[in-house]
Amino acid sequence: MLEVHEKRSISSTQLFDMNPIPKDSMLQLRIGLTQSNLDRGYDYLIDVADPSSKNYSKHWTVDQVVARFAPNRESVDLTMEWLTETGITDVRQSSNKGWILLNAPVFQIENLLNTKFHEYSSADGVVRIGCEEYSLPQHLRQHVDYIFPGVKLSPPIKRSGTRKRACFGRKSPSNVAIVLNTSSSTEHCGTSITPPCWRALYDIPEQGNVSIPDYTMGVFEYGDTYAQEDLDEYFAAYAPYVPTGTHPKLVSVDGAQAPVPTSSDENDGESDLDFSVVYSLLGAINVTLFQTADTNATLLDSLLDAIEGPYCAEQELEAGFHCGVASLPSVLSISYDTPELFDETFLSQKRACNEFMKLGLQGHTIIVSSGDYGVASNPSFGSSGPCPNGCIPQGLNNTGEHSFHGTIFSPSFPTNCPYVLSVGGTQLSPGQTVKDPETVMNTDRFIIDNCSSPFFFASGGGFANYFPRPPYQNAAVSTYLTKYAPSHPYYYSNYIDVQDRTTTIGHNGGVYNRGGRGIPDVSANGAHMLGYFGELNEADGTSISAPIWASIVALINAERTAHGKSNVGFIQPTLYQNPQMFHDITTGGNPGCNSTGFPASVGWDPSTGLGTPNYPAMLELFLGLP
């Protein structure tokens, strides 16, 4: 007996043109097997991450992680038996044991899964393969996470030349004569942020005062590529202690190249921004760049393939692809996201989030920007129809078309995952100095098609629909909800039932999931950064905040290494148990979805988390831990 295993939560009809695939076409399919012991993953992680545990900082090896979470033999045998009985013979298991890989004609796979596969063509010329739903034998459902491609679409089989994605906001600074003279001053930090401003705000030591081991910092770039000319201009103007030509070590995840000329369509400024922040705070250290070229591929599959191989079909890899061979630094900064209910399915997000849990077990800290649209997601997704606001429409159960215009708050992936450190944004205002308290990042920044008024770049925050609140957040988030939460109607999410598409998302007119993982965890300055992106520009966004936090964690790891201690790894339990290490942000808010969003408050809040870092206090505490 077949049962629906996965079904698209939002109809594809307005986002794509859908055309059937020729029945005799060959299709490569991957079956993600259910892994063992995932129900204990959180407990394993807390055992090495909670400072009160006797096993604090005793991180696991790669082999220990693989052995503990490998699918059980029954899952492999039952899946192989099912495929053999249906006449599919070109089958094998991946080297990391997590996937069954097969090749078969489309008609055979459609019969196998009781579905129809289509080509999904988007407005920019990209074509991907997938289906709206698929079914599995009832006895197999507990043994399979999800099938790819399926509801989760394939990487592009055809693509346009480029697809630029604005990951942060930028504009020409209002007074170039002033900002060109701020490289060593904090005088204009209220309007023009340079490295001395960050150091003064958070008491970060001058570069060179801490010896940082090689390749302890990694940066992930998704479709955008840095230009060496831009970095050199920035170093000369604002970080003269970084030599001209300083650049990261390239790990080309999917054959991508770096650097590119400033004029290249592949250089939109995001990568320039990340490396400008990291090098200006850490100096000319060895940084690893995980570069992927394909902005239309699933956001993190290529990255996770490079470092762990969880999605690889190794025998079909093209030249230049990495599969489980790249060494991940102790800290990884990610400044990209996708709407939680848009491009990634719940099952694929859950699997990727569990991969981050495994990395935390091994002592890695994964740091992710929380987004730039307040309680909404990027409004550029699904932009047909009325002016999109990046929010989920009410009535998901009955929605046949989707313009990404609604009233339900829309968090993003991967910042919704409880195993990454989610970083929101703050800002100083004109006339303020580094001695003044910051407020929530909220800047008037840009206009998109079909919209007459500008959107605000505001600190991403709110509550996940796909992941429940983790225990390490309970006390802080409960206090906010009890004392400071606005009167927005809410619901408790049951995710989405894959068999009949029923959901409590938006139930009774609610606009946020009161039981979800709180976003962000922490924050840092994300407004008015000066940089070179082809020319002198000013940038806003949590894309600035995330590498600031990554740099701070790298400094703390370096200090712990000098004292014979291990990396901090999964850092959240320690942070939430020690709120005194933060500058609390208590003013401002993060509007979106036709609402005022969530206001900042005393303690944790869904716009700035626990607050901004106090580096000396953090260093003292972490050096005092085993």
UniProtKB/TrEMBL annotation:
Please indicate which superkingdom the organism of origin belongs to. Eukaryota
Question: GO biological process annotations for this chain's record?
Answer: proteolysis
Q: Does the keyword tRNA-binding apply?
A: no
Which GO molecular function entries does the Swiss-Prot or TrEMBL record give? Answer: metal ion binding; serine-type endopeptidase activity; tripeptidyl-peptidase activity
Q: Where in the cell is it found?
A: Secreted, Extracellular space
Span of domain Peptidase S53: 192-625
Q: What cofactor does its activity depend on? A: Ca(2+)
TM segments? none
SMART domains membership: Pro-kuma_activ
Q: Where is the active site?
A: 270 (charge relay system), 274 (charge relay system), 543 (charge relay system)
Q: Which Pfam families match?
A: Pro-kuma_activ
**Co-factor binding details:** Binds 1 Ca(2+) ion per subunit.
Q: What is this protein called?
A: Peptidase S8/S53 domain-containing protein
